[in-house]
Fold:
Amino acid sequence: MEERYKKAMEEAKDLANRMLNEISGEDARKYIERKEFTDRLNPERSWMKFWFKANKKQIYGISAAAASIVLAASILFNINNENTTQQLVSVTSQELMPANGNVVLTLASGEKLMLDSIGGNQVKASGVEVDREAGEISYEKAAKVNVQPGEVAAKIEYNELYVPKGRSYSVVLSDGTKVWLNAMSSIKYPVRFARGERNVRITGEAYFEVVKNEKAPFTVETNDYKVRVLGTSFNISSYLEESKTVTTLVSGAVSIPSENGRESVIAPGEQYSYDRMNDKSETVKVNTDLYTSWINNFMSIEEEPLIDIFKVLKRRYDIEVVFDNIKLEQERFTGKIPLNDNLSIVLKQLSRVSQVEFASVGNTINVSYRK
Structure:
């Protein structure tokens, strides 16, 4: 470790000296954004971007000498990711790991299966294949024969999958469509789809990769509207505690019918949102990665207010949050936040790149400005 430390120090001095040729803080920012610099940071450049977003005003006024200090400090901070992590854990009063509730599958009979309690990694339960290790259930083999046209709805068996706080899970439906469910979300669906239609209902957040079938459009029902597709990938967020239901399209095309008979058609890279509080909707272009990264267990954010960051974290961790100052809620950050690691480490990192401090008392996070 000592040799790596010395080497990193030399690199820091080298970069700092080169920075002296770039006078303004804006030049410093551009330099650090260059791949030449960021490739030296371990593990990612995200935390440096956090720092610049949080201290934008101060950056534009710093001198070359101050910029060199920032550079050196940033490299030292990222000398060794494993060592830094251990240090952060040692100074943290408690670990704040993701909540660990049980994923529940409710069968048509009303029986509830606690999927995490089923023995073995890959088992069959009530005709459903459960892969505990992958965090996934599948109905593909349960649908050899579709429900025939004219069969009454009562004969169509529905299952419901609920994912608790702190978890994510996926389900492969009988047609091969794959659905990822975020924390505190549920999906209700037929064990076998009726011919000519594929209808499901969700609460919370879900990402869909829909198998194309022109003879059977796929419909997702939320509390606020329905989304109709043929074959596409998209994300829907429809939490009851949020005022908006938001659909983000990654590929393909979706249409959203309205009560007046008109349809809103969304193109890839667009997002449709409906605000039930003021009964208004809009379609905007977005970076879809910001709304789909959760399926890979991290949160990708861009100029995101701290209050919105904690809305997501509260679904993953069993925590409550108290802001000392209302201005703190609007402190903005950019980068990537892991959703399945010790939250204390994440908060330590956020604090290092901003003027915000986090203190935990039990499961309550107190947020304040550094004094």
Observations:
- The chain has three domains: 2-90, 104-290, 297-369.
- The longest strand covers residues 198-209.
